[in-house]
Amino acid sequence: MHQASQQEFSKYVDHIGTEGMHTRSQQIQDRQYPHLSLLVDELIRQNPQLNDKLKERLEQLRTGDAQVVITGQQTGIFGGPLYAVYKLLTCLKVAREAEELLHRPVLPIFWLATEDHDFDEINHLIVPTHDYRTRKLTVSAPDAIARSVSRLAFDQAAVKKIVRQALCAEQETQHTKDLLALSDRLIETSTTYGGFFAAFLGELVNHDIIFFDADAETVRQLEIPFFERLIQDNSDIRQALSEGIQQTADLPDTFLNEEAAHLFVEDIGRDLLYPGQDFVTKQGKTYTELELLALLYASPERFSNSVVTRPLMQDYLFPTLAYIGGPGEIAYWTRLRPLFHHFDWTMPLLIPRMGAVMVQSRDEKRLQRHTLTLEQALSEGIPIAPFDASEIKQQLHASTLLGEVLMEEVAQVEKNVLNTTSISAKLNKQLQLTFETIIDQERRLHEQANRSDRALQYQLSPGGVPQERIHSILPWLNRYGLDLLQTLRVHYERTEAEQLKILI
């Protein structure tokens, strides 16, 4: 994939690099955030385990002295795929670097995408089968209604069952007992999937990041003025999105629905609004602009953002220096610049999350056996040859011929002396069984060697998919202990590389 240089990327964004960070900081310093004190109260309520350093910085956010770096993700069970963990670690790193650069407090914020209603995105862990193919362990949705994840009851029993099933695919280690104790404690004290996500990852980084769930009643009250703008200016916002898509036509395509109003309303489920003479849902329910505004003031908790308007709401709520995103997110954010300009804002810096490939020492030895580099293994896969019995049969050819001669001699003697054939028949059967046993043993040895290679393929690139998109942090915690994220954090702090090889 082509990686845009800083010069190439700069034409799609408002701020970039060190100079851009200074400029952006000054711009948001000059903006007004009259809701900050109430927002800080909510952040304190949502993060009861915060460490003292972040509590102090939250008070500085209340007064407008602090700024933030934000990342976010759907709230997958046990943190979801590894790339969500890497987003979190990148956010911690960038917040620290921004604080040193700007000489002002900068808070890391993880935006929990609990308003999303695609439960299938978050309801599972992926584990290996006995032959190292991928298998999903899932929690069933309570019904077929597309509700925001925050509105779903957390199924404690099902999540407990999944963690035990997932660990059955792993060897028990000295860390297994502690991992189960931690997961059980957090499961039993969680009532939502977002809450469990935040409690679990927060525990693993010593509560050194602030988790934010926008789908909370207090937050929706704070968002009313901006939802009002999104409703009233909807035509202009949709036009700005079309302009943004046209301006970035030379970038890889990302699907953004130009037909939608980019707002959701909760009715029976979560419904996307579409514009027309009135606003209408796919179920055919219509709202005039005045009816929508009246509903907003009466029941703001029924409103939520799409991927197009969430970045705008984020910028409305927080003095945001930078957003940490994956490749797909960065691509669609570049389309949104005209929307920010509609509100007389500029975009925050867009900083790609760092990635990683975790390599166990035993896997590195396996790579050496194949004379493969990690890069070759990731791009080409691990060579796994199918079993071919022809070679061993060729090696047994002379023995087979001797056996046939022997059997002819024995059969002739038995017939002449004893006038029977049972002894030679039995001997022939034993001889054939010997040859088959040798071939079967060779097959087992081949499969045993291949099992090691299939395990290596699964660990590095399961099914040819990047490790970070399939693996969760759970098996790695079982192997290396609950302080693993702190170890990974040290790796992140020590490098500027976008893709890390972490040998553990």
Overview of the structural elements:
With 504 residues, the protein is an alpha/beta fold. 52% of the residues lie in helices and 13% in strands. It contains 22 helices and 14 strands. The protein has helices at residues 6-9, 17-30, 36-46, 52-62, 82-102, 156-168, 176-188, 193-204, 217-232, 234-247, 289-298, 310-317, 327-333, 337-342, 361-369, 374-380, 390-395, 397-417, 422-460, 467-470, 474-480, 484-493, and strands spanning 67-73, 106-112, 124-128, 134-138, 210-213, 263-266, 270-274, 279-281, 286-287, 303-305, 320-325, 349-352, 355-359, 499-503. It has a 5-stranded parallel beta sheet with strand order 5-2-1-11-12. Strands 9-8-7-6-10 form a 5-stranded antiparallel beta sheet. A hairpin with a 4-residue loop joins strand 8 (279-281) and strand 9 (286-287). The longest helix is centred in the last third of the chain and has 39 residues, at 422-460. It is elongated and about 110 Å long. The mean pLDDT is 90.
Percent strand equals 5-15%
The biggest sheet, with number of strands, parallel, antiparallel or mixed sense and barrel status, is: 5 strands, parallel
Which strands sit side by side, in order, in the main sheet?
Answer: 5-2-1-11-12
Unreliable segments (pLDDT under 50, ≥5 consecutive)?
none
Structural class: alpha/beta
What Rg is obtained from the alpha carbons, in whole angstroms?
A: 30 Å
End-to-end distance: 28 Å
How much helix, percentage-wise, in residues? 40-55%
How many runs of DSSP E, i.e. beta strands? Answer: 14
Average pLDDT rating: 90
Principal-axes geometry comes out as elongated
Number of helices: 22
